[in-house]
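Write out structure tokens for ZC12D ribonuclease.
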Amino acid sequence: VHQSKMDFFCKLGYGKQDICKVLKNLGQEALEDDVLKELIRMGSKPQALENQAQPSQLKLVARGSCSTTLGLKWLGEDGSDSSDSLRPIVIDGSNVAMSHGNKEVFSCWGIQLAVDWFRERGHTYIKVFVPLWRKEPPRQDSPIADQHILEELEKQSVLVYTPSRKVKGKRVVCYDDRYIVKVAYEKDGVIVSNDHYRDLQNENPEWKWFIEQRLLMYSFVSNRFMPPDDPLGRHGPTLSNFLSKKPVLPEKKWQPCPYGKKCTYGNKCKFYHPERQHQAQLSVADELRAKTKVPLALGKEEERCQCS
């Protein structure tokens, strides 16, 4: 009897341990209905129901769409968040801090302003490199303002100290610029600095191209961090395209033709003609030739019919 009940409830999908517990409590002669009620009261579920209860990973799809492509566009082409489409940011902490302090004071508040600006845009990977000796108490020849900000950014895993040590009373400092360029190059990100890193450009030709194309300069205007809207010049990409992995190309805007319908350039006209949207843009001479060829062709066909 025990084995038959075990087989019966195992076929329903219940676990053997739960069935044994119930049979011990109710006895071997308990009815199947009583055993089933006890299993339900214990919270035991068949394996099929447990698999159905597990939430499946569904993707949001726009209402009215027939496929998941529209839903994926809301998250990005590969289904990732918008933050994944933004480039990593590597900030030259010393350059930013000295620029905010008018090259007289190492202003840590300037670093905070730059980090906040990129956070508001949605960048998740932000790293700031500062020499380790900046943790030391400030001196007269190297004043530091708002030094507590460095500790807060270090706790947030945003600030990274480049190594330095003292040998016989002299400070040995590693070259922090090489850290900045190397990390930005490996991450395919953007360098935030007003330094041109000419010595590193001469070291590596790949770094030379990267620094020329991925260096984002900036200015501070009344405690406001302001990078340029055209980082690579007037004819280069916009700031939003510069900071994104997949730039959005602007729509081409056609300038209307100043001559309008009186224009005689035809398809050679470089301006936009709204009246020629559904017409082949031919020059006036070509249009006249096409009109004269039509009646000539009709006349030749009539002559052939008469001869036949």
